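INFO batch 0412 | record 1 of 1 | parsing
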Amino acid sequence: MLRCRLDTSNHPYRTAEIIQIRTSEQDCKKFEYYVHYDGCNRRLDEWVENDRFSHSYTNKDSIKKILNTSYLDQPDRKITRNQKRKHDEINHIQKTYAEMDPATAALEKEREAITKVKYIDRIQFGKFEIDTWYFSPYPDEYGKQQKLWICEYCLKYMRLEKTFRYHQGECTSRQPPGKEIYRKGPLSVYEVDGRDHTLYCQNLCLMAKLFLDHKTLYFDVDPFFFYVLTESDKHGAHLVGYFSKEKESPDGNNVACILTLPPYQRKGFGKFLIAFSYELSKKERVNYRGALSVKELSHMTSITTEDIISTLQSLNMVQYWRGQHVICVTPKLVEQQLNSFQCRKPKLIVDVNLLRWTPPKKSNKAAKK
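INFO prediction complete | emitting tokens
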């Protein structure tokens, strides 16, 4: 463990762990160090130069030892089971796997090892240069670039700015593929079938992983629909965010993954996407997750019964009476909740009258269920 300063001089030194080392692109005689700050979210993991360390804690011998044993930066070299065990021990993989079933624990261990180092620091996406948060498994040499250029319309990713500029002049796409199912003002939602537009959806998943820690879907996109939210101007439809949905969900989930891109966060788009997913569920007339004790309310809202009960409990609207739980709602209690901060009106509301969508036909196998 070393002491390292966060990204500005105003931050104090924090205990940090060196995960990986690479040669600086600016000076081949210098090294950059990928550090994880103790007790911090992995979003803060970053590549730093030697001047960010507290010199009183910098041990050249220990850094040299890390450099000599840095096998993760050798893509062609196989990692032995013993090396992986030592790597997990050195990097202090959190011992919370005992709470998981063995299969889940094994997958989580593998994910931690693979995604520990984030090489792509930022992306150019349309007019935005966006700092990335997490590792994403871009293939081959693309995955180890410090910056990627991504077309905001077709989502093609490139290593070089000149390639990106040339592509901008050649690309004819100005909106997502698929069918536009909603439009109100500058906002549109497109339904994109992962089977029909595989490459677009794969690229969308790869980009999304840069901002999502736990995400496992990258390449097998056929079983999913992607609902892409855009904001249009005279240049085209700019991607704001999306959610994906399984065509046939065995667990009854109406959202598999959801993301609002960082430049559009805190503007109400995330809540809009969630609300939109529920509007689709209403049209499907699907009630998720098991038996319904509040069936009518769940059917009207497409909110799960568990979520309804949990929300009522948090609002003190469930009382224990004569050996059972009953809903107890008074006009005063309703008025208090409606006037509370949590119940403020969303910035963006889905206008169901503008939703042009019919549920896709279920397969015979799904229908029998």
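INFO post-check: Residues 69-95, 287-292 have pLDDT under 50 and may be disordered.
INFO record closed
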